[in-house]
């Protein structure tokens, strides 16, 4: 081997070693990116799940030729890798952490809140469906629902998200205004006895009132909501499989109603997905991540998608859903819904799907 050949071989050898080092560095950095946290959560398309196998109504029927499906969004804390991916993909979004979990909360708090909201959504769906089917429904005020606790205030140490405050110093608190009234005459440093239920068990605790942030009032530091006991004439079992949040309200209402109405099949053979909260008066409300839910429904083969028409401008859930449907080129029909009766009327107007 002459000197020139030796020189060229040496250069190739050094180049190969240099490339190997660069490749190894890239692999190491990529691996570390999965362990580097960011201050964001990432959301992306979840799944569309048939509600028939999840919901059982006592004395109801399950002879749907189609299916009602709830839709989900996948959400998790974004490490550096997910952060980069979300900035490159049209099917992933980043949300600042403070919009998902409040200051001082952790993932366990978030999960408890989402599950509590889902439980309430299920009960309201049952009430709306039974009323539409002609049954009497009783609604009783149960107490003050703890939907969050404020960092640095006494409730943070003794109460959990999902607890229900039923009394202050032995005086019943049927709803949030009763809690406010019970504390209105108190001052900082006063002690009160809080009676609450957690997972069906009653508990009591003494707390010392403190000034509330950005307020002249004192309190215990909870974000309250009203908890209602909804009594229906038949048993309904919903296996929500750990799914949280309120957005399945509309679709659960339709599935329960379909099982109650033994005279007809609301689905008429179609695969029907959708989303939207449900109120006791049947109003369908806005939800987050509808673009991800449209994608999930399309992948599951849905033919109809109900979307809340919460406003009449371009910011409505319905318009967001339309834009996503156009972007992905789906043939799925996007249907605007303001109330559950709108969804029923639309289905009543469809011809049964031929098999």
From TrEMBL:
Residues 243-350 form the Lon proteolytic domain. Residues 114-200 form the PDZ domain. It comes from the Bacteria. Transmembrane segments: none annotated. Keywords: Hydrolase, Protease, Serine protease. It catalyses: Hydrolysis of proteins in presence of ATP. It is an enzyme of class 3 (hydrolase). Its EC number is 3.4.21.53. Pfam families: Lon_C (PF05362), PDZ_2 (PF13180). GO terms for molecular function: ATP binding; ATP-dependent peptidase activity; serine-type endopeptidase activity. InterPro entries: Lon_proteolytic, Lon_Prtase, PDZ, PDZ_sf, Ribosomal_Su5_D2-typ_SF, Ribsml_uS5_D2-typ_fold_subgr. The keyword Hydrolase applies. GO terms for biological process: protein catabolic process; proteolysis. The active site is at residues 247, 293. SUPFAM superfamilies: PDZ domain-like, Ribosomal protein S5 domain 2-like. NCBIfam families: SepM_fam_S16. Belongs to the peptidase S16 family. This is endopeptidase La. It comes from Brevibacillus parabrevis.
